[in-house]
Amino acid sequence: MSSRRSRSRQSGNSRITDDQINDLVSKLQQLLPEIRDRRSDKVSASMVLQETCNYIRSLHREVDDLSERLSELLATTDASSAQAAIIRSLLM
Amino acid sequence: MASPLISNPEANSDRSRESKKKKRKKTANQNNQDHTKWKNRAEQQVYSSKLLEALRQVRRNQSPASGSSSEVPLRGRAVREAADRVLAVAAKGRTRWSRAILTNRLKMKLKKKKPRVAVTGNPRSKKHGVSILRLKEKRLPALQRRVHVLGRLVPGCRKLSFPDLLEEATDYIAALEMQVRAMTALTELLSVTGNGPGTEFSSNRPTPS
Fold this sequence. Notes:
The structure holds 2 protein chains of 2 kinds. Chain A is mainly α.
C-alpha cells in the first residue's frame, strides 16, 4: 500500500498531488512567525502543521486574555458619550 | 442581530454590482482568496468600531449584574464571543470558518434553554472510546494526526479536504492576527481614556499616541 494513495483516500478528495500539498504548506509557512526566520530547507510539512496548531492556540489564548482585560475595562469605564466620541475619532 | 448587508437594499444592489465585477476578476483565481485584506488598516478600523459597538451592547446587557466578582470569567467569555462574532461578520461569509462561527452562535442560543441531559455519560463506554482512539492514533501517520488537530482548531473545518483546510487555516490565522491587533489597540485606548492617569493595571507607557 503506497502512502500516497491511502492519504488521498483518507482526505476524501480524489487527486491531491504532493506538489499541491507542498505548495500549500509553503504558503502556510510564510505566515508563521516561528518558521519564517528559520531556513526553509529544514522545515518539514509535519513541523509546519505543528507550528500552525501551536500558533493558532497561542492566538486564541491572546484573544482570551484580551477579552478578560477588555471586560474588566468595560466594567470600570464609564462609557459616557464624550469618551465614545474620543474613541471613535481615534479609531477612524 | 441583523447584518448590515441585509438592512440596506440599495446599498446591497450597489455592492452586488461591485461584488459581481470583483467575482469576474476573481473567477480565474477562485482558490486564491485575498488574505492580505486582514492586514489592511481600514479593515482593522472597521472591525474596531464594530467591536466597540458590540461590546457596549454586551455591557448594557450585563449592567444589572455589575460588581459581582464571580461574573468576571463570564464577562470575558461574552467579550470573546462578541469579538469572534464581529470577526466572522467581517469575513463577509466567504470563508467556512466564519460561517461556522456564526452558525455555532445560533446553535448555542437555541441550546441554552435546554439543559444537557447526559453530561457525564457512561464511564464504561468512555473507557472503550479512549482505548479505541489510542489504537487509531498509533496507526495514523503523524501528518494525518496533525491535520486532524488543525481541523479541530479552525472552526467548522473538521471534515475538510487537506488543501481546503490549509486555505481556511491561512485565512483564519490572518484574521486572528488582525483581531489581536485591534483588541490590543482597543484595550490600550480604553485603559487610557477610561480610567484616567492613575491606573494600576494599565501598561506603563510614557505617552499614548
